[in-house]
Amino acid sequence: MQAIAHPRPFLRPSADIPAAVAALRRLAPRCQAGARLDLFHACAMLSTDSGVAARSYAEALLRGLAVVLGRVPVLHQPGAGELSFDEAWIASLLNAARRGDEDSMRFMLASRLPRHARRQIGWLAAQLALRQDQM
Question: Which of 3, 56, 91, 126 could be cross-linked to 18 through a Cys-Cys bond (beta carbons 3.0 to 4.6 Å apart)?
């Protein structure tokens, strides 16, 4: 009988939490308390100002996802050592956007979002990915 090594866990506690997810976790309570967001209007407002901070894109993304998904995305408390499914999905979407991998972005958006929201959520994710180091 051969011994089977334990497979590497999907994520090592706290070591593999992306910086963007950690920042989103800190913003989540504030976004949940905000008013309902009109996704199209929010994207239009943000696109007119090139100096908008990463935090504004992050807030719009979280609030937009809450509207589109019909529920608030599951974000763990800051410092938690594991990722929720929503956090992992957001991190993967941001990584694809940062790499310029449009095919992966399209696939990920189509896997969870209705057609009418994909363009706006994708744009917000791409803008946040560009400014991710400013969070």
Answer: 91
Q: Where are the beta strands (DSSP E) in 1-135?
A: none
DSSP 13: T
- 90: how many CB neighbours lie within 10 A of its CB? 25
Spatial CB neighbours of 4, under 8 Å, sequence gap ≥ 6: none
Rounded Cα distance between 74 and 93, Å, is: 15
Q: How far apart are CA 109 and CA 102, in angstroms?
A: 10
Mean pLDDT score of the chain:
78
pTM above 0.90, yes or no: no
Question: What is d(CA 113, CA 122) in angstroms, rounded to the nearest whole number?
Answer: 10
How confident is the model over 74-92, as pLDDT tens digits? 999 988 888 999 999 999 9
More confident residue, 27 or 4: 27
Question: Could you give the CA distance from residue 117 to residue 126 in angstroms, rounded to a whole number?
Answer: 14
